[in-house]
Amino acid sequence: MSNKLSVTIITKNEESNIERCLESVKWADEIVVVDSDSIDKTVEICRKYNCRIIQTEWLGFGKTKQKAVNTAKYNWIFSIDADEEVTPQLQKKMQSILKNPRADGYRINRRSFYLDRWIQHCGWNKDFPLRLFNRQKGGFNDKPVHESVQIKGKISKINEILKHYTYPDLTSYINKMEHYSSLSAADASNKKQNASVNKAVVHGISKFFEMYFLKAGFLDGKTGLILSINSAFSVYYKYLKIWEKTKSDKN
Q1: How many DSSP H helices and E strands does the chain contain?
Q2: Are 115 and 204 members of one domain?
Q3: Enclosing domain of residue 31
Q4: How many domains does the chain divide into?
Q5: H or E element, residue 77
Q6: pTM for this structure?
């Protein structure tokens, strides 16, 4: 008999993404959505798919995702982001695994799209986040950003594709960069980490060199160039915010 599966999703104003995501996981035994005060049609769309909806204040990515895991009925969890989509091949693979799991957690091959183009280089081509797991063996850490699942047990890999639609346009990228950089700066401040303007510049330039040259972003054409520049600016902006917050805390 197959293990039952709970799909967990966290949302905040995801009306442009959530239906595609839910359509791809509607085969699961349960869908749990933890929503943080969406003011668009996110919750309305989720109700169409009979999701169990939990409203909560924003706790940071790690804690909010773990809240969804804790709320789920079943021990086997598939955590998916609202801007992701399960392919039919991945669905079949997960259903097969759940009949007789041979590991406690599974890393899944994620294919990311940027400005609607599949990015095959820039360091985005070897992305295997751990998303399918037995919650009796682990769960999400508490990181407010760049969270991950920590498992005490055997981890395996799934090669079937999880599609990730990151930023359909530049405006969405800039908005998310603002949000993520603020979270990263707050986290760094809590850890008493310091930064300087020089450090921001050096890390930004290094990020561009890494993505565009070392990780062959130039092979992704104009989109690879845009992604490398924007990622470099995002790193620069993050360190600048850490520097700004450090100065503010001292004053």
Answers
A1: 7, 11
A2: no
A3: 5-167
A4: 2
A5: strand 76-79
A6: 0.94
The encoded tokens of residue 72 equal 């789920």
Judged against a pLDDT cut of 70, whether residue 251 lies above it is answered with no
Following DSSP, what letter does each residue of 127-152 receive, concatenated?
Answer: ---EEEEETTSEEE---SSS--EEES
30-35 and 52-55: which strand pairing? parallel
* Whether residue 125 sits in one domain with residue 203: no
Cβ 63 vs Cβ 142: under 8 Å: yes
Asked if 162 and 187 sit in the same domain, the reply is no
Instruction: Dump pLDDT digits (tens) for 43-84.
Output: 999 999 999 999 999 999 999 999 999 999 999 999 999 999
Q: Which two tokens stand for residue 248?
A: 């503010």
Q: Alpha-carbon distance 93 to 173, whole Å?
A: 32
Are 179 and 125 found together in one domain? no
Cα 246 to chain centroid distance, Å, stands at 27
- Do residue 99 and residue 175 come from a single domain? no
Q: Are residues 99 and 191 located together in one domain of the fold?
A: no
Q: How far apart are CA 106 and CA 157, in angstroms?
A: 5
Look up residue 214 and give its DSSP letter: I
Last residue of a domain, one of 107, 140, 167: 167
* Structure confidence by residue, pLDDT tens digits, 27-42: 999 999 999 999 999 9
The residue out of 145, 167, 189 marking a domain boundary is 167
Torsion of CA 157, 163, 164, 167, to 10 degrees: 160
CA distance 92 to 245: 48
pLDDT per residue as tens digits for the range 158-172? 999 999 999 999 999
User: Residues 174, 162: one domain?
Assistant: no
Give the pairing type, strands 76-79 and 5-11. Answer: parallel
